[in-house]
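Good morning C.,

I know you're traveling, so I'll keep this short. The sequence:
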Amino acid sequence: MIDLDTPTLLEITLRTLGVCLTSLSIALLLGVPLGIWLGSRLFPGRRWLLGLVNSGMGAPPVVIGLIVAQMFYRSGPLGHFELWYSVQAMVVAQVLLALPLVIALVVAAVASLDPDWQLQVKTLGIPTPWRMLLLLREIRLGLLAAVIAALGGTLSEVGAVMQTGGNLEGETRVLTTSILMYTQMGLFESAYALAAVLLGLMLVLAGLLTWVQYGERR
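The tokens, ready to paste straight into the viewer:
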């Protein structure tokens, strides 16, 4: 039996959090402005873009992992970056999985605003930067929902992470790929220990965000 010691468990957990939070941050930085733009403007091709975003929400993770892995493979278009089986490649795959979720939920939050909201703030002569802050405040519950959804997706993903990271010991091994590995080896004790840590992380992070959301509702 392989001994899953405390330093190894801590290392895997911290790497999992690092990949997850980095992916989440990038997805929010890209997805929130795109979601606001799509949700507040009418232009030719908007429906097509929204359909593409909604399709991305259901994209199979293994397909995303395959595409990213092929891009970073030695003979791939981005092979010169030498990111094959790396944490960076894992982050790219996770961002591509989380981004449609963030965009779609932000679009829905913006669309739920009063149709005259934009006109009202323009009439009041509020400067554009302040308008954006006010908009973020108005859709804050939708933003929290986007964060929770993207967080759950990135923290629990295994297929794309395995394809882009390779589950290399000490380099790209995270909780989900470790659980899969130990299960395949028949080491269910270690697999359940890691599963408990993963569930604990999800409960703590999602619970904290839900508490913030509940406080906002109150």
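Safe travels,
E.
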